[in-house]
Amino acid sequence: MSIVLCRVDDRLIHGQVVIGWGRQLDLQRVVLVDDVVAGNSWEQDLYRMAVPDGLRVQFATVDDAIAALPEWHADPTKTAILTGNVHTMAQLHHAHAGAMHRINLGGVHHQPGRHERLPYLYLTDDELATLREMAEEGAKVTAQDVPTAPAVSLGSIR
């Protein structure tokens, strides 16, 4: 199994991901799953600038990611799958629960309707319910902004 990180973080590719998680997990590839970014070369170039040499970055639509998940899961390349929101992660999980069985919640910031659950995690009640559904289906869902911080189980997030 080479998908070593499935992370929801609305900043997508940034220092905590590529340096903190990348070094900790010895990442070789980051796949950013976002329909808008996958179709926008200018945004892709911006995200590529945040990626150090030696770390491959790939951009995929949700549909393309769903089709590629079995291949990424079987590939020995250590891969992080990043989504900017819970809904996209849920789509990937529902399509391939075996590949997307451990979900990490990173920085999900305040927006209207979201409530602070942790200092770096704001979720709507619907987003929290979606995460709980994934957990009931077998996903291990935890919140952890950086790899050196303790993971917070979904059960303790209110």
Furnish the topology, listing elements before pairings.
Layout: E1 3-8, H1 15-25, E2 29-33, H2 35-38, H3 41-49, E3 56-60, H4 62-74, E4 79-83, H5 86-95, E5 102-105, E6 115-118, E7 121-123, H6 125-136, E8 140-143, E9 152-153
Parallel strand pairs: 1-4, 1-5, 2-3, 2-4, 5-8
Antiparallel strand pairs: 6-7, 8-9
Mean pLDDT: 95
Question: What structural class do you assign from the helix and strand content?
Answer: alpha/beta
Determine the oligomeric state from the structure: single chain
Helix content: 25-40%
- The overall number of domains is 1
Q: Tell me about the largest β-sheet.
A: 7 strands, mixed
Question: What is the CATH fold-level name?
Answer: Fructose Permease
List the total number of helices. 6
For the record, the CATH architecture stands as: 3-Layer(aba) Sandwich
* CATH homologous superfamily designation: Phosphotransferase system, sorbose subfamily IIB component
Give the C-alpha Rg. 14 Å
The proportion of strand residues reads 15-25%
SSE run: EHEHHEHEHEEEHEE
Shape: globular
Summarize the structure.
This protein is an alpha/beta fold and 158 residues long. It is 37% helix and 24% strand.
How would you describe what is shown here?
By secondary structure, this protein is an alpha/beta fold. The protein has a single domain, classed as Phosphotransferase system, sorbose subfamily IIB component (Fructose Permease, 3-Layer(aba) Sandwich). It contains six helices and nine strands. Strands 3-2-4-1-5-8-9 form a seven-stranded mixed sheet, with helices on both faces. It has a two-stranded antiparallel sheet with strand order 6-7.
